[in-house]
Amino acid sequence: MDKGRQNEQSSEYAAGNGIVNRRGFLERALFAGATGAAGAGTGVTTAWAEPLAVPRWMTEPGAALSAYGQPSRFERKVMRTGVPAPNPATHGIGSIRTPLHLLNGMITPNGLHFDRSHSGTPDIDPDQHRLLIHGLVKRPLVFTMEALARYPMESRIAFVECAGNSGALNTIQAQPGNAQSIHGLVSCAEWTGVRLATLLDEAGVEPRAKWVVAEGADAAAMSRSVPLAKCMDDALVCLYQNGERVRPSNGYPIRLLLPGFEGNMNVKWLRRLKLTEAPVMTKDKTSRYTVLLPDGKAWQFVFPMEVKSVITQPSPGLTLKGPGFYEIAGLAWSGNGRIRQVEVSADGGKSFAPAALQEPVLGKALTRFRIAWQWNGSPAVLQSRATDEAGMVQPTRAQFVAQRGLRAQYHYNAIASWRIDDKGEASNAFA
Amino acid sequence: MRLRDRAARSLLLCAAAIAVAPALAAEAPRFGQPISPGDLASWDISVGPDGAGLPPGRGTPKEGEAVYAAKCQACHGEKGVGRPNDTLVGGFGTIASDRPAVKTVGSYWPYATTLFDYIRRAMPYNDTKSLSADEVYAVSAYILNLNGVIGANDAMDAQSLPKVKMPNRDGFIPFPR
Prior knowledge:
Chain A is an alpha+beta fold. Chain A contains eight helices and 25 strands. Chain A folds into two domains: 111-295, Sulfite Oxidase, Chain A, domain 2 (Alpha-Beta Complex); 308-429, Sandwich (Immunoglobulin-like). Chain A has helices spanning 3-12, 22-35, 145-148, 179-183, 196-203, 228-233, 283-286, 397-404, and strands at 13-15, 19-20, 94-96, 115-117, 130-135, 141-144, 154-161, 186-195, 211-216, 223-227, 236-241, 244-245, 255-257, 270-276, 291-292, 298-300, 308-313, 324-333, 339-345, 353-354, 356-357, 367-375, 380-388, 417-420, 426-429. In chain A, a hairpin with a 5-residue loop joins strand 15 (291-292) and strand 16 (298-300). Chain A is globular and about 75 Å long. Residues 1-9 and 33-42 of chain A have low confidence and may be disordered. By secondary structure, chain B is mostly helical. The radius of gyration of chain B is 28 Å and the shape is globular. Classes of the chains: A alpha+beta, B mainly alpha. Chains A and B meet through strand 5, strand 6, helix 5, strand 14 and strand 15 of A and strand 1, helix 5 and strand 4 of B. Strand 16 (298-300) of chain A pairs parallel with strand 4 of chain B.
């Protein structure tokens, strides 16, 4: 290899083990196009070997119009999955996860938004459902769903992430799992509703009030205390999810959205908001969703989901088809605001290169990142490391475990790794 | 030109409509309906760590044992040992250790009031909000006694329950960020 060729290669690669410099990749593609040459090592070079056939669906009429569209029958594997409940008698307790590795973009389709429930999904008649605001307010108020629908509304694209997401990585040895089973308790939707501040202002908040107990209308009447400041800031009482009414498993007819805060606080089937001076210390704020540290103390009131990212493609189950070009794509998010940067490594964190962030990059929403990778066919370890606009950077697993140990259970946000073997198969790994 | 004419005519029509319509002051939307404290009482089931919201009633561990056997044991096991659902008793010494943390009412929960609040709103799983206040106090007392937190004859009510000192009461620290 002569000196000129070497120089060209070094400018093409932005990080070790084949992470392609974005500009270098684009320039090379343009050059290849102009000269008619096949891109070096793209893998798609075999000539088509038979005449193209006219498919059956072009010679006969298609199906009749349908009242509510469904995915293609060829996409039936794109499903939420979960672990069966340990006790069939209490099957409403549990979670079902988003197939992150089978989706693209930043929005989660409504039928695939993750669902974590404590007592099943209630079948609520919106005409009988009420929202009560009381406690430390001048005027306790009741709202019908019809009344709520008359208020000025606003939309925001926001992620919701269960505090237990990625908790499967709290193990000494890496266990089998994929993007869905490990990281699938995060989803992102366009939520539309009424600003909670508008409703609280109407009720007249007493100066002593500092917290708001939010309670659902499910059988468990799941409840959490939320700081009043968050309720007055960007909280929404949502009626719509991606344009249609909120799905039952996500809180129909109304849910609370607290952008960036742990999923459990975004109370579904919202029926009551009580303003109080102090938090009421519900079961889910004490026995659950506290972060146990190595010394036996536990962090309480851990509200924002901190900066995190996961590579969705390639990932376990999506086997690489031989050496050549691949796009590494994934999702990054932070409960503290926008994603500023995502860096990707193909050599287990020895070297990183910045990925392209897909617009729009919104605060407290999923952000899609992408980078080109030239896989040489040998084992690799893929990692992504996100930084948010507050300057928070995802810790390495070693840093994270050194601080929190492996028993914290909730709020896991260390850098995650996928190991790619020489057959192109990806697996969960600790690197 | 024609478009502009049409726009001008619409403007004139609008102006005319405004002129004849009765003046309506712009106001903020207010669609909440006031409700009296009495009418919302049945919904207000929150119990604070200071005992605010606890209803009248009382129960002892002995009375709670019968409620537990009938309504709770099938999921939480004999004497709260757990399986198939959550373990309610024991786990002492596992919270600050290298062993897996066994978080139970006794080893982890900071407030006894949370137990009353949660049982009343969410248990028994298949028939929630069905227990009387006496039964909720009694079964709370039973679980606290199984954990050695209260004595076998200690009755729980709105006064005594908030005074129970839970073993892990000081186990929680604020999130530093």
